[in-house]
Amino acid sequence: MTPARKKSMNLVAVGAAVVFILVYTIPTIQHTAAVDACVEQGGRYDYDTEACVTE
Fold first, then answer.
1. Is the dihedral of CA 33, 34, 38, 39 positive or negative?
2. Could you tell me if 32 and 38 are in contact, meaning their C-beta atoms sit under 8 angstroms apart?
3. pLDDT class for 1, splitting at 50, 70, 90?
4. DSSP states of the chain as a string?
5. pLDDT tens digits for 18-36?
């Protein structure tokens, strides 16, 4: 395998890792922030409806 081809394969792997982070990690962080904000308001986060419930 030539060094140029090996470098190209490494760039593809890095690109796949970046896409994975963008697709899976960022929405998870946003969802966690929404749950935390709901709890701070004194509510309870309903996971079925994905809404903050204040009673």
1. negative
2. no
3. low
4. --HHHHHHHHHHHHHHHHHHIIIIIHHHHHHHHHHHHHHHTT-EEETTTTEEE--
5. 999 999 998 889 999 999 9
